[in-house]
Amino acid sequence: MEPLEESDLVEGLSVNYMKYSGLWKIINDYRVTGKKNILLKIGLLISFLFPGHYVMFSLSSIFFSEVDFQAATMFVLNPCSGLQSVLKVLVFWFGLHSQCQILNMMKKDFLRCIPKDKAEEAKEIMKKIAIRSNYFCIAGISANAICVLVWNFIPILRSQYFREELNIKLDNMETNTPNKILGGGYPFNYTITPWSECVYVFEFIVCAWAGFVISLHECILIQLVMLLWGHIQVINFVLSNIRRSDFLVKRNLPTRLSKIKEDDINSSEAVNKRMNDHLLNCVKDHQLTMKVGDQIRDLYNFLITAQLGTGLLIMIISVFHFQYYGTKDALFTVKFVVYLGYCMVENVLYCYCGAYLEAASEEVGMGFYSGEWYKGDANFRKIGQMLMVRSLRPVSLIAVQLYPVNLTTLTSLLQLTYSSSALMSRFVNE
């Protein structure tokens, strides 16, 4: 594979997050050499050393610590994000070859069926969708960055310096309570110096790295799904604007055709052949988008399943803590509002992108039907029928190898979050 060049990308598409994170070099090095470079190996190592070990410590601490129901939920809550970051790095590591193939969608010449007279309109469609995907990425990165900053900064506000030197007390935390960033425990006494400082640094790195990895891979998936949606939209646009008159050769003939009668060039058989060839190109491009959609589904099915599963758990526990404990501690409330926000934004973006993709792929058949299909010959209509049959199987994001990720899924997640958190609150009250 050839390396990706920024000049070859869809106009309006921003890949700054890839360039600044080193992901651009990782991808291009693999596309050229077929080998994973040192940056990716370092990233995998960091993911296992920090988020990986934190997940192990936090979950195992349930068995050697005496905790109440609130603490037990905290032991499960934060490891979900750490687990997400580790899984995203692993999926990227093992699926890097497929990832590099799918990234060809970022090229502006990905489709071959666009006529020259419609190239500008198709370019404008892709530009608008690319810009929208940039906004989605900014929303995801912003939510994650706010969450990381708030969680890492709150222990500073709770520190002994703020309490004793500045006489600032922003919560009801007892002085002997461990001042940590994340929930969970460790198999040693981390309330004394220097272990308390070491734990803070460790959890700071865990939180920052998890936010970085989650943001990075969230943006990749969003842009890929949005671009696939854009390419299907372009195919739909081309199909709906098929006009028989566009396949008539104009009067100003080239020199090499000057001896051929215009009647022969614009005969019914010649025009039908040009229409059929053009429609075949559209079918091939539609087949290509369906193949890419299957690749995305195969590559990300496990990751999306894990994301929705852990995301649902995060939302349930966050809402539960906000409902039951939030009024007792202002900083506690802020922590869980931003934590819930980060997870909600990611799930909402995935579901909206999946809905866009599914709806566009279902409209391909109607796009052909909107054109002048009735002016083509029998072969033209047969090709169109095959295209319409193919469009009955929509391209979509899938979770658990079965459920499409769309707005219906989002509604179900929100309903389950509310009902489960309410059930937990009732259990605690009783």
UniProtKB/TrEMBL annotation:
Protein topology in the membrane: Multi-pass membrane protein
Spans traversing the lipid bilayer: 38-64, 76-96, 135-154, 220-242, 299-324, 336-357
Short name of any one Pfam family annotated for the protein: 7tm_6
An annotated GO BP: signal transduction
Main location, first listed in the record: membrane
Domain of life: Eukaryota
Keywords annotated in UniProt: Cell membrane, Membrane, Olfaction, Receptor, Sensory transduction, Transducer, Transmembrane, Transmembrane helix
Compartments, as annotated in UniProt: Cell membrane
One GO location term (cellular component): plasma membrane
GO MF annotation list: odorant binding; olfactory receptor activity
Family stated for the protein in its record: Belongs to the insect chemoreceptor superfamily. Heteromeric odorant receptor channel (TC 1.A.69) family.
Protein name per its UniProtKB record: Odorant receptor
